[in-house]
Amino acid sequence: MSTTTTVESISKPNIGVFTNPEHKLWVEETTPKADQVKTSKGKDLPEGWVTVAIKSTGICGSDVHFWRHGAIGPMVVTDNHILGHESAGVVLATHPSVTHLQPGDRVAIEPGLICNNCEPCLTGRYNGCEKMAFLSTPPHDGLLRRYVDHPAIWCHKIGDMTYENGALLEPLSVALAGMERSGVALGDSVLICGAGPIGLITLLCCQAAGACPIVITDVDEGRLQYASKICPRAKTYKVDISLSPEDAGAEIVKMAGNVKPAVALECTGVESSVANAIYSVKFGGKVFVIGVGKPNMTVPFMRLSTQEIDLQFQFRYCNTWPRAIRLVQDGVIDMRQLVTHRFDLEDAEKAFETAGDVKSGAIKVQIQSEVDS
């Protein structure tokens, strides 16, 4: 057990990346204060907590959405709010009660804090916690800071994994939850809708799982080219928004060599894309929606009914991080090509502008703080 910390690692003030209801984005000093971290050495932390120096944080589409639109469904930015939930870093200090972590350990941070008392928590599906505090979702401040206090149980050791890969474990967890609940199996024909970061990581998972054939769709040719780069055997289909869902579905099936998908993994949440997926899958197939969409949506009910298609949904993830770490450490999933842009923490405004600009060619933008590897 250790309560010491590396003082020279706390040489800069703690700053965070904020937004507000006026859609402003800025960087300013925040908590925990650097002096407090330096002098406390963990003794002032809550029982079971640690202090982590955040080294890499990925910008999620939800971060951009909270900045530009101020809300996702019922989750509304009502005050100054810190963004970010895809983070990895190094432990600086531990409360005396923490025995499995010590200063110097590299960790990836699982951002959801749960109550451990409600039915979803007690049955192992803690992503449905009735009192979930998911960092970066209002009103809970996120991880885009230089220093963060966090429960040790949600700080997963990553060994000598790079901080970049550590930060990518969060979106990988989203994809792994989708893979598990959708039941994709060896030899399944799979459709992936959307070639953004989640869609591309889902593509890597389907490739590793032995799905075939795989078709991935998007409206952006550049992202489809990226998909071909990371998974050459995947077929790519550029969505023609002028086509009806019936015609788009037929085109997708044709792209797959006339093999109808057994499973469609819908990673956009866009109504028309969900409909395209429904019209592509086989009788008795499944459309599994990973993406987040608008509050209300119209779906082709009779197509679902007459074809016995299961329409299923996902909310975040649970129990995925240890598996995600193993997959990356053993080289089963290689996400290194996904990080296209890197910015210093002080340049977070430029990072968000890049992540939110479809013309930038960005796949995954990461914000980094004094990263050595």
Q: Can you lay out the helices and strands and say which pair or pack?
A:
Layout: E1 15-19, E2 25-29, H1 34-40, E3 49-58, H2 61-69, E4 71-72, E5 75-76, E6 81-82, E7 86-94, E8 106-109, E9 112-113, H3 119-122, E10 133-134, E11 147-151, E12 155-157, H4 163-182, E13 190-193, H5 197-209, E14 214-218, H6 221-230, E15 235-238, H7 245-255, E16 263-266, H8 271-278, E17 286-289, H9 301-306, E18 310-313, H10 321-329, E19 339-344, H11 348-355, E20 364-368
Parallel strand pairs: 13-14, 13-16, 14-15, 16-17, 17-18, 19-20
Antiparallel strand pairs: 1-2, 1-6, 3-7, 3-11, 3-20, 4-5, 7-8, 8-12, 9-10
- Structural class of the helices, strands and pairings? alpha/beta
Global morphology: globular
How many distinct helices?
11
Percent of residues in β-strands = 15-25%
**Major sheet, described briefly?**
7 strands, mixed
Distance between the termini: 26 Å
The average pLDDT value, as a whole number, equals 95
User: What is the helix fraction of residues, given as a range?
Assistant: 25-40%
Q: Radius of gyration in whole Å, from Cα?
A: 21 Å
Beta strand count: 20
Low-confidence parts? 1-8
